[in-house]
Amino acid sequence: MRILSIETSCDETAMAIVKAEGGLRAPRFRIIKNIVSSQIKIHAPYGGVVPNLAKREHTKNLPKVFAALYPKPYTPNPDLIAVTVGPGLEPALWTGIEFARDLAKKSKKPLVGVNHLEGHLYSFLFNLKSQISNLKNIFPAIGLIVSGGHTILVRMDSLARYKKIGETRDDAAGEAFDKVARLLELGYPGGPLVSALAAEAREENIKGDFPFTRPMLHDGSFDFSFSGLKTAVRNVVTKREMTGELKKQVAREFEECIADVLVAKTLRAVEEHDVRAVVMGGGVSANTYIRERLAEALEKADASAEHLVPPPELATDNALMIALAGYFHALKEDFVAAENLNARGNLKLS
Predict the structure, then answer these.
(1) Which CATH number describes the domain made up of 137-309?
(2) How far apart are CA 256 and CA 77, in angstroms?
(3) pLDDT tens digits, 13-51
(4) Can you give the pTM of this predicted structure?
(5) Which CATH class is domain 2-121+314-340?
(6) Which of 322, 337, 246, 295 has its CA nearest to residue 4?
(7) Which residues pair with 322 in a beta bridge?
(8) 30 in helix, strand or coil?
């Protein structure tokens, strides 16, 4: 099955062509084309994504990306069109949905609407290691989605059966990274900049004298909360003169707090649910320190749980992951008429 996928949930205009086969038991994917048009420069002056600006840029970029995906005189002939319907910024989501509607009507090809979070959940399948592995040996698994808008733990019994067991009650991990970056006046996008400062602090053995609390670390649930941590950072920033060294101290302590909580909760989920693997997805899963901390913790715990993550360049928003989720919807014949496809900004993961 050849899939054309479209992703416009936030500030990336992305399209991909993926060949999928093998079904649920042994899915295999070949990337034919993958294009991501970033809007970072547009939104950087505002310190975050402006929904109407994002919509405007998607409207401009979608025809350009499509033309790059299918250069003339080649006629697009996918077997399936998959498009993100939520969660995300609704003005941005609608641009991709309307583009997909038009393509589906013109090409008379089936259409599926995809939950963006499912895309992140399945993105580990682009890990070459997992493509070789027998998927029967991966499940049951714990899925950890860590992105700008979500921090979620999921128990996965198969690719088709999963259940959410915990999520953030306020700020997501990625959102907290971006807010701390603004407090430290680092720029946008903030997450990688905070991580870079934290890495410098560890290399230079710089550590602060303001140990932040690890929120909800011992509460017994699989839920998360990072708003209090952000407030703790604000209190330091407003009460001290922010030198370059102090910013490194704050960045290091903040990142280590996030990692401690994510690792501890994930490990406990592994133990309580007796799983065979931990799969990660979402933009924050590209964070080298967090990836390494989780891998080391799983090894030390002798949990025998395989650690599967997408390549860093495929952890952030892209259309490839939408193709993955779209394929699994197509296997269930979960098709949608173009006129019934709608944006759902607050769409949840089941």
Answers:
(1) 3.30.420.40
(2) 48
(3) 999 999 999 998 889 999 999 999 999 888 988 888 899
(4) 0.93
(5) alpha beta
(6) 322
(7) none
(8) strand
